[in-house]
Amino acid sequence: MARRILVVPTNHGAGVTSTCLGLVQALDRLRVSVGYLKPFAQARWVGEDESVELFRLTTSQRPPAPIAVAHLEEMLALDRVGSLMEEVVDLADDALREHSVVVIEGLAPGTEQVYSGRVNAEMARSLDADVLFVANASRLDPQRLAHSVGVANSQYVLRGAPRLTPSSLTAAVADGQPKSRRKSVPTRVIGVVVNHVPPDRDPSEFAAALQQRGLHTVASIPDNPEFTRRRVGDIVRELGLEIVNVGDQSRRIHGVEIAAQAAPGYLSVFQEDRLVVVPGDRHEVLMSAALAETKGTRLAGVLLTVGIRPHDDILDLCRPALEAGLPVLLSPGRTYETVTRVLGLDPDIPADDEARANLVKNTMAEAFDEQWLLGLPSDDRLPRSTPAAFRREVVVAAARAEQRIALTDATDPATLVAAINLQARSVVRCVLVGDTAAIEAAAAEVGLDLPAGLAIAEPAAGVEPLAAGLRMLAEGTVDGLVGGADADLEEVGRRAEAAVGLRSDAEVVSSIHYLMLPDEVVAYTDCALNPHPTAEQLAAIGLWAAEESQTVGITPRIAFIEPRSSSDSVAADTERVREAVQLAAGRRPDIHIEGPVAFNAASRRASNGEGGNGTVFVFPDGAAAESTFHAVHRTSGVRAVGPILQGLNRPVNRAPGNGDALEVNEMIVATAVQASRNF
């Protein structure tokens, strides 16, 4: 699995693109397979994104075009962050498959993108990325910088399931862990780059202040004016200046001088690489500048203001200097306004400034801690499926499989909306089971047009849609079924078992829920069907849940949860769980399995090899499963998918009663994925 490093600026002017350039260069020098990605464009750029263009100019990277600002802001306004992050996961797919480390550029803050912090945090969660902060130290003392970075760090705390007390409420302390470990909050942040360190500051002061907050400095870069020196051609393009004499547009501007005095007072402004700004009617200043140029003082250029062009005779007198490369520009604005605009230009590197980009890239690359760099490819973190990755995985898997799924609640508006949507996106081939006239009338009532390719199967006279759909499934006419919204789950499970039978290794029909926590998706089983499974059944339920989870991109780490200590049969129940663990481990030694284990211990974040980090939670009985699921669901406030039935010879799932189109959509897609794997 590729290591994902999201580079996040903590304040304005931090240099996020420069840091990405330097990090990619540093890893490339170490022969690490490294990729680069910028998911979102900056609002201030029109046309091609300059960060992406710089990478194409100075490296072998060919990153895809970022998602446009207009689309980003539209999705945020519609509160469709989840769908937006699925697009990010899709955009990153190629880079993550092709490289061992992928550097991802976060959004820079600004008045036009006040949402950058929220978007960056969502990207980190959706891509399961580590975070590298980059901070601008030019106007902050060490303590203030450390404070601002510490505040930003709080957005990247890893959040699994909330900890539960015996009463299923959130708890404030960990169970049985040393105090020193309780104080350590797991975070995505793996380092801080301190950029633009003032010349009068020792970089170690910033590193020490950050270390006090548990943050490691991986690079310190002194403020370097060469990083921000624009060419004359850059200000012409960005300010829309008129060119009086082209000259050498590649000259770097080291400073701006205003020729305000009369001679000889203004002569001091004629210095190497300075842009001299003067009203256009000050012909003597232009001629003096030309003379200085011919005498060997290489000015950056002369910028005339208030829209007054020099007379042709004046230009003829200046001809030797003009032909030697002195640029002369013209602005319609007043002198003060023009100077303010020049000084206010963003210091970002233009997409065609290869020399400046290479200087920044190489300087930043040299600044990184080599030992830190060497540790990046050897990422020992456990892989996690994020909500965005989960949603994308199930849709891609369903679309690839092209399964036919019978929908027996065909007059339900939510079912119709979901079926039309999935048909239009070519994700699932839906078959509506029911009376054609009734289905068409139900669609018309809510303003829906049934597409020509959406199949309808009419049951025989007197046969209800669910029975007809189950018969179609048993005969192989369809690959899966979603229906029975008016029935309870137990009834749907019984009828499905009677129609298609159990898998030989399933023992019983069971259910699984997927809970989309902020940072990952986990599975809970069995929350709905089996109140008190035997050890054999519990082992089979756990292994089936692991296989179901693996199908949708979750790396299974099974945690068999210990019985509640308040139970009268705790000793016998614990032995039953222990036996289930032994059975499961014997059948699937390739899967990480632990238990009996407390839920809080199983769900805690821990380093690889330290236990915890469960992704498939198998509960000892239905009551424990249901109460824990509802407590976590309620306290975390996140979406859940399920219950999904498992163990049947062919997939059957109950349609969500009173569910919206999204819930029905999720159930249909999940059923299609089941069908693609098992049947």
UniProtKB/TrEMBL annotation:
The keyword Methyltransferase does not apply. GO terms for molecular function: acyltransferase activity. It comes from the Bacteria. Residues 390-459, 466-655 form the Phosphate acetyl/butaryl transferase domain. It holds the Pfam family DRTGG. Residues 234-342 form the DRTGG domain. Keywords: Acyltransferase, Transferase. InterPro entries: DRTGG, P-loop_NTPase, P_AcTrfase_dom1, P_AcTrfase_dom2, Phos_Acetyltrans/Butyryltrans, PTA_PTB, Ser_kin/Pase_Hpr-like_N_sf. PANTHER family: PHOSPHATE ACETYLTRANSFERASE. Involved in acetate metabolism. This is Phosphate acetyltransferase. The gene is pta.
